[in-house]
Design a protein that fits this description.
The complex is a heterodimer.
Chain A (H helix, E strand, L loop, with lengths): L3 E2 L3 E3 L3 E6 L2 E6 L9 H16 E2 L4 E6 L4 E3 L4 H8 L4 H24 L3 E6 L2 E3 L1 H7 L3 E5 L3 E3 L13 H8 L2 H10 L2 E3 H6 L5 E3 L4 H12 L4 H11 L4 H15 L2 H12 L9
Parallel strand pairs in A: 1-5, 4-6, 6-8, 7-9, 8-10, 9-11, 10-13
Antiparallel strand pairs in A: 2-3, 3-4, 11-12
Chain B lengths: L3 H16 L12 H4 L4 H15 L5 H4 L5 H9 L3
The chains are: A alpha/beta, B mainly alpha.
Amino acid sequence: MTASKIRPSEKTKTLSWELKDGTIELALHHPPCNEIGTAMLEDLEQFIAALESAEVKAGALILYSRQEAGFSAGADLRELYAASAGFTAAERVSGVRRFLERIHRVLNAIDASPLTTIAAVHGVTFGGGFELALACDLIIADKMARFCFPELRLGLIPGFGGIPRLRRDAGNAVVRDLLLTGRSINATKALSAGLVSQVAAEGEVLRVARATGAQIGKFDRTTSAAAKRFLKPIPHEELQREIDLFCELFGRPAVMEALRKFVEDKSAHPYLP
Amino acid sequence: MKTLEQTTDEILGLAAQHFKIPRSELAPTDDFYKKLKIDSLRALELITRLENHFGIELPDYEVQGVTDFRTLASRIQARL
C-alpha cells in the first residue's frame, strides 16, 4: 500500500496546518485563547491522524497560536463545568476520564512523533496549553510569554500529562514551585528553569521557530528520530497514574464548587484562590 | 535603591506607553483595571512587562486583590 501524502494545507474549526519549506506549521486559532475542549480535541485528533497516516516530507513540526492573548489558556473550564454539572460524581469522573484518555493519546502522539517538534509560544501558556507545549521537543518563547499550572487553585492537578512531562524536563524544586503555588512565571524564568530553549523578542517567536525548524531540516531524519527516541522517553506509567489521580480528585464536590465560582464570576479578575 | 515614588512613576510611564493612555491621565491611586480597561489576561501582560522592566519576579498571588498603581509599586519595591 502506498502511503498517502499529508495535504499541503488544511483548515478545521480550531486549527489549520500547512507544509511549508520542509516544516509543518500547526496554527491554533480558537478564540478567545485556544481553550482545549471537545472542538479542539477533535481537530487535534484529525491532525494527528493525518500526520500518522501520511508520508511526511518534513523535518520539523511547529505549533503556534494565532490568538493575540496567547498560545493557550488550557482546558475549556466552562465546557468542563457545563458537561459535569447535574451529573453524579461517578458520571462526572467517567466523562472526564474519557476526555483525558483522548487528549493523552494526542499529546503522546506529538511527544513520540518522529518529527522534531517545536512549540512557539507567546502570551498565556497555562494549564493544558502548557502541557501541550511540554509534549514538544523544544519550547521557544516570546519574551511576553507566561507559564502556569493553576489547577491546584481549583482543587485539581494538571490532567493532560503535565506533571510527568514537567518532571522529565525540570528539577523537582521547580516542579513543586509551579504546582504547589500555582503561580505563573515569565519566559526568562522558564528559560533559567530549563523549560524553554530560546527566548525571542516580542512578536518574533514564529520567525525564530521557523529558523530553528530550517536548521533541524538539514539533518538526516532517521538520525534525528533515533536521537529523539533515545533522549526523550515517554513516561507512560506515570501519565496513566496522573489520569487516575486527576479522576480521583475530580469526583469531589469541592471541585465542582470551585469550577462553578470560576465560571459564574464575570468580574475583570475572576475567582481564583 | 529606588523610592516608592520613583517606582510608581516608572509603572505609570510603562502603563501609559503600552496601553496607549496619556501619562498625564494616570495617577498612583487609579484602579488600573478600570483606567487601562484591562481584564485578568491583560493584567498578566502588565505583570510580565513590569517583571521584564524591573528584572524581578512578581508572583501573581502577591498582586491578587491589588487594583491601584501605588500598591502595585509597593509589591514591586519589596522585590527590588
